[in-house]
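Lab notebook page, bench 4
Experiment: in silico fold of construct C2
Operator: M.H.
Input chain length: 158 residues
Purpose: comparison with the prior construct
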Amino acid sequence: MKKIVVLTVLIITGLSLNSCSENEKVEKEEKMTMQKPDMGMAVKDERISLKLNPMQKNHQLVNMRSHLEAIQTLIGLISQEKYDEASKVAYEKLGSTTEMQLMCSSFGNKKFEDMGLAFHKSADKMSEILKTKDKDKSLEAISNTMNYCVQCHSLFRQ
């Protein structure tokens, strides 16, 4: 009986240690996710974590992919000179709708919220510029909106 108890304790201890080392490994991998483009080496990810739970992470990833898809759609529509359709996509998919405003304010980080709202407001402006049917100004507007994407992704991580 004593051998069984000792064996059980050893097994549980081993499983606990393995679980801890797996958690530490995951945390370490999360912090070492950025690649140095010129060297191919992993470097510590110093971006601010939003500390999202798995459900929030998934929701945020879906939103970011939707934003990226909208940008791709806009570029295609601009290239086809379909400015009215592009204007509608810019506002409905990227603009500062009530849903987008609520999403930005739900993360508990004021700087993230401010950057997100600025991004969505720039999409409102882009929507208006697209209505002018001026390709150069439209491309400049989409570039301005994408600058918010680049800034946010360089400062924050999930």
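Observations: The radius of gyration is 23 Å. The chain has a mean pLDDT of 82.
Next step: discuss at group meeting.
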